[in-house]
Design brief:
This protein is mainly alpha-helical. The protein has seven helices and no strands. The two termini are about 75 Å apart.
């Protein structure tokens, strides 16, 4: 195991003073001097743990700083009976580093999903517009194959939204004749468009 992760009280380098556990207890009481000394003890190991997880230097520095600030803010939660101050700091560092990596990955995933949806939508919209235009042109071409009377009846009924009796009235023809023209015209359109049942 790495020396920076060993269990038990860690003395401040270059002094026979209090260990990290005692320093963290003093930090919990608001001692800035104890925090400065604790910082000297744990900053390196905290950065090392974060750097192994996060990899990016700038982000690792940022996460390490967040961990040290969290140590200051939450020092009162430290319980020496549950483990050493260094191990507690390293656990905080590992959790914070993993959270940063997950957050970054989630952001990348969201961006890729959004980009895929946007590019897919643009393609679909273009393809849909082209397909619709081609279908309209094909319908126009097929309408031109109908007789004038069939075309007039189909256009009034299906593009004009008229009922069969209204078409008969507009064209001044008996209803039966209009129905026959529409039936024959639709059969020819179906055949021309290649629609199968």
């Amino acid at each position: 195991m790495d020396d920076s992760v060993r269990a038990g009280p860690v003395p401040v380098p270059g002094s026979a003073g209090p260990g990290a556990d005692d320093l963290l207890v003093e930090v919990a009481r608001g001692s800035e001097v104890a925090f400065e000394r604790l910082y000297e003890v744990v900053a390196g190991p905290v950065y090392g743990v974060v750097r192994r997880v996060v990899r990016d230097v700038a982000q690792s520095e940022e996460v390490a700083q967040e961990v040290l600030v969290e140590l200051w803010r939450t020092a009162a939660r430290f319980d020496p009976a549950r483990g050493s101050a260094v191990n507690w700091a390293l656990t905080l560092a590992h959790r914070r580093a993993v959270d940063r990596v997950r957050s970054a990955q989630a952001r990348v995933d969201r961006e890729q999903k959004t980009q895929a949806m946007a590019s897919g939508r643009e393609f679909d919209e273009v393809a849909e517009a082209v397909t619709a235009r081609l279908e309209r042109e094909q319908v126009r071409r097929c309408l031109s194959t109908l007789t004038e009377l069939q075309r007039e009846s189909v256009v009034l009924a299906y593009y004009g939204g008229k009922t069969y009796p209204e078409v008969a009235e507009l064209l001044d023809c008996p209803l039966g004749t209009i129905k026959t023209r529409l039936r024959d015209g639709l059969i020819r359109l179906r055949d021309c468009l290649g629609v199968t049942r």
